[in-house]
Design goal:
alpha/beta
Length: about 750
């Protein structure tokens, strides 16, 4: 390019002079055209004294030469750039083969010098018996020059999947190079290798083909490893797939899995948010390959039944099967999908139709955001294209219990996982008293659940909390007091306004001393005092943690950094209506995980959905809530007399599911036609609160709603909060929920 520029600088004056001469000739011709006869030959104008034709020709030649030279230079530059780009791509694509064949490549490269030379002479003269001895060594030597030794990666399992596509292409190449000896070559060693390769190719395809990512309520196969056959037999329609499920459930043991080095979609955490994201990714990209990494030993499962329906099961083996009956009588598994839905982690990269793999028992300890890779607790590194952080949270504990020593900690349960449910179930059958510290959702649900066992197992259940009544931070005081009486009727001894001062272990008993001097003796403690968001990866990843609410700060699209999203309990998101929030409920995990999965595939949707949550105090009393429900806010409650239809059991019989949010989140925020019947005068603080609606106000605007024994009306409540309007008479708004209809 510099040469062309230099030549042009030298020739530019001459070109300008030529153009000037041409213009002068045109002007002279125009002035003398009236005097010159019309029959003068045109050739005289180019050869006369005032001509300039030679300069014009030279100008045209120079311009043409410059154009041709520029075109040639451009062509060579583009061709060179494309060649360099192609070389770079080939180099990058061959890195995985180079790593896999780094050790076996050294002896292969040292042998060709001895083997390749006698091969042309030995081909026509050697006997059939001598040919096999030379050819098994010559074949890999030729392959090492043509391709990065596809037969050698067969011993290491992680790279076997990558080498499978090329092993099927290389045998024809070998036959063409040694066309004289095809029959003898194939028998000794190569016949054994193709027999092993199809096993790798055929196994991933069956689990990847049936990708029912939209079936979230399949009942079969609750048990992952131990008892899938017994659990799946009543639910699975075909009889033949059952042995396959058993084989797959025992196959993906955490210790035997070999981790893929790269995955397009990496989901950290094995909870509800991760599964919802995986389902959403597969819905938008059916061929997507998704890897879920969880430190638990189980695939994704639902947490709400751990404190609700599982405790009311009549099956003595419920801790093994993890199957439960919903309030409507239908049975289902705690797991979102049976083991056959997932594929093995080592088969993920080779799956033609993609799939979802779960890597259990592995914890992510470091995250390199700039390098797009993570490190596991066993120093294994996995690179990714897009990543979701759905690490959830860890249950809080009281500092007085942590300082009490190891003996007290052994008799304390922090309720969160399947192991905690199994452990507490065993403890409740073998001890005489259990004390639950905490008056929130989890503490009240466990108190009611264990209270049902108090008469059967002669068990004393005590619940203590610093508030005046159950769920005192959420419900208005009058409704909190009513709920406390309901919990007492379940056989629970309630101690309100209790602040724990110390906990000691004496004579194999725990003594809980309160700050007001009261002393409670118990055999076991369940600490249900809240959840702490798991933000251990924030430091290594350089992600921002919210100082007020905790959790990873994300934008409206749930994105924390480029190619990194956060969903579930660990996400501190911006609510366009209620401001920045962090929600710890099942419905939020479903909705945020689904949206994060869509945005990971390029949807770019903002989070506008108002998530809901629900709590059941047994099959007779339950409520659903949405928005900001804080007892410190002013509230307005509208109640009516309840009927037999106004119970959680009746609601699940109508909707067909015990996880009510799964049906609610699919509805749009549009309200049906409200009942036109006049509402009777309702006394706000009556002794019986059968069913009703509680509105939470901030600046005279509804920011939260609780539906007390009112079900399947959540889209209406969601629309009221989304509109953000000021209402003069909330009794008229309550008509939208049809609470006065029988």
């Amino acid at each position: 390019m510099l040469k062309c520029r230099t030549v042009w600088k030298k020739l530019a004056p001459l070109a300008r002079a030529s153009s000037t001469v041409c213009r002068q000739n045109v002007r002279r011709t125009g002035l003398t055209s009236s005097r010159i006869p019309a029959c003068v030959p045109v050739a005289h104008m180019s050869t006369g004294p005032a001509g300039g034709g030679r300069e014009n020709q030279l100008y045209i030649l120079l311009v043409g030469a410059a154009c041709v030279g520029g075109a040639i230079y451009t062509y060579r530059t583009v061709k060179g750039d494309s060649q360099r780009y192609q070389d770079r791509i080939e180099e990058i694509s061959s890195r995985s083969y180079k790593r896999a064949t780094a050790e076996p490549a050294t002896p292969i490269q040292s042998e060709p010098s001895v083997i390749l030379e006698p091969e042309p002479e030995a081909a026509p003269s050697l006997e059939p018996e001598a040919a096999p001895s030379l050819e098994p060594e010559a074949a890999p030597s030729l392959e090492s020059e043509a391709a990065p030794s596809p037969e050698e990666p067969s011993p290491p399992a992680p790279d076997a999947e990558v080498a499978v596509p090329e092993t099927t292409e290389l045998p024809p190449a070998e036959q063409t190079t040694t066309a004289d000896e095809p029959v003898v070559e194939a028998s000794p060693e190569e016949s054994a290798e193709p027999a092993a390769v199809p096993v790798v190719e055929e196994e991933p395809s069956p689990p990847s083909e049936p990708s029912p990512f939209e079936l979230t309520e399949l009942p079969p196969a609750p048990v992952v490893e131990s008892e899938p056959a017994a659990a799946e037999s009543p639910a699975a329609e075909p009889t033949e797939p059952q042995p396959e499920v058993v084989a797959q459930s025992g196959g993906p043991a955490p210790d035997s899995l070999k981790v893929p080095s790269h995955t397009p979609y990496l989901l950290i955490g094995g909870g509800t948010a991760s599964f919802a994201a995986a389902r959403s990714i597969r819905a938008r990209d059916p061929g997507a390959k998704v890897l879920i990494v969880t430190d638990e030993s189980d695939p994704p499962y639902m947490r709400p039944p751990l404190s609700k329906e599982l405790w009311f099961s009549d099956d003595p083996s419920v801790t093994e099967t993890l199957r439960f009956k919903q309030w409507n009588g239908k049975e289902r598994s705690i797991y979102f999908q049976p083991p056959s839905f997932y594929i093995n982690a080592e088969e993920l990269n080779g799956a033609e139709n993609g799939g979802v793999a779960v890597l259990t028992g592995k914890k992510v300890v470091h995250m390199d955001v700039r390098g797009n890779k993570i490190k596991l607790d066993d120093d294994t590194e996995i690179s990714y294209d897009k990543c979701l952080i759905a690490t959830g949270g860890v249950p809080r504990n009281l500092q007085v219990i942590e300082r009490a020593g190891e003996e007290v900690m052994k008799k304390t349960t922090l309720f969160r996982k399947i192991e905690d449910f199994k452990s507490l179930d065993k403890v409740s059958r073998n001890v005489k008293s259990i004390t639950i510290i905490g008056g929130g959702f989890l503490g009240s649900e466990l108190a009611c659940a264990l209270g049902r066992r108090s008469t059967e197992y002669d068990l004393e259940v005590v619940q203590m909390f610093p508030e005046k009544g159950n769920m005192g931070k959420v419900l208005p005081e009058y409704l909190s007091n009513w709920t406390t009486e309901k919990v007492k009727s379940e056989g629970v001894k309630v101690i309100s306004e209790a602040l724990v001062k110390s906990v000691v272990c004496k004579d194999d008993k725990l003594e809980i001393k309160l700050k007001d001097g009261r002393l409670v003796k118990t055999d076991h403690i369940v600490a249900a005092v809240g959840l702490e968001p798991n933000v251990d990866l924030a430091k290594s990843a350089g992600l921002e943690v919210d100082s007020d609410f905790g959790g990873f700060r994300v934008n409206a699209e749930l994105q924390a950094r480029s190619n990194i999203w956060v969903a579930g309990d660990a996400a501190c998101f911006y609510d366009i209506r209620l401001g920045r929030r962090r929600v710890e409920h099942h419905d939020h995990a479903v909705v945020s995980g689904r949206l994060a999965g869509e945005n990971m595939t390029g949807a770019n949707k903002p989070y506008w959905h108002q998530s809901m949550f629900w709590s059941d105090l047994g099959p007779d009393v339950g409520y659903e809530a949405i928005g900001i429900v804080d007892s410190s806010l002013p509230t307005v409650g509208v109640f009516a007399k309840a009927t037999a239809k106004d119970t959680p059991k009746a609601a699940t019989e109508k909707s067909g599911t015990g996880i009510r949010s799964e049906s609610e989140t699919e509805d749009t925020a549009t309200s049906p036609v409200a009942s036109l019947t006049l509402a009777p005068t309702v006394e706000q603080h009556q002794d019986e609160y059968g069913k009703g609606v509680i509105f939470y106000l901030r600046d005279k605007v509804v920011v939260g709603i609780i539906l007390w024994n009112v079900f399947n009306r959540m889209p209406i409540a969601r629309k009221i909060i989304k509109d953000g309007e000021e209402h003069a008479d909330l009794n008229e708004v309550a008509k939208l929920f049809n609470i006065h209809d029988d």
